C-alpha cells in the first residue's frame, strides 16, 4: 500500500501543506527571537499606552499558532481525511 499512487498522493498533499507552513512559522518565530535580542530599541517602542512592539509581536505568535491550527484542521478535513479513509477502506477490503 505504501507504494500505491493513492498513498503517494496523500503523502504529497500532506507534505505540501506541512513543510511550507512549518518553515514559515519557524522563520516568524526566529524573527521574533532575533528582534528581541538585536532590536531591543524597536521592540521596546511604545505603540500606544504601555503596549510595545515586542508585546504585539509576541502575542502575534499565539495568534499565528491558532491560525495555523485552524488552517491545518480545515486542510485535513478537506484533503487528507477523505483520502486516508479511502485508503483504509481499500486495505480492509471494503472499497466499492
TrEMBL record:
The chain crosses the membrane at residues 17-39, 51-73. This is DUF485 domain-containing protein. Keywords: Membrane, Transmembrane, Transmembrane helix. Pfam families: DUF485. PANTHER family: INTEGRAL MEMBRANE PROTEIN-RELATED (PTHR38441), MEMBRANE PROTEIN (PTHR38441:SF1). InterPro entries: DUF485.
Amino acid at each position: 500500500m505504501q507504494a500505491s499512487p493513492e498513498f503517494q498522493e496523500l503523502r504529497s498533499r500532506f507534505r505540501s501543506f506541512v513543510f511550507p507552513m512549518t518553515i514559515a512559522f519557524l522563520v516568524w518565530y526566529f524573527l521574533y527571537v532575533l528582534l528581541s535580542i538585536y532590536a531591543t530599541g524597536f521592540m521596546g517602542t511604545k505603540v500606544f499606552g504601555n503596549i510595545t512592539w515586542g508585546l504585539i509581536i509576541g502575542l502575534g505568535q499565539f495568534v499565528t499558532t491558532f491560525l495555523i491550527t485552524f488552517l491545518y484542521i480545515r486542510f485535513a478535513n478537506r484533503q487528507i481525511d477523505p483520502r486516508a479513509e479511502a485508503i483504509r477502506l481499500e486495505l480492509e477490503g471494503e472499497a466499492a
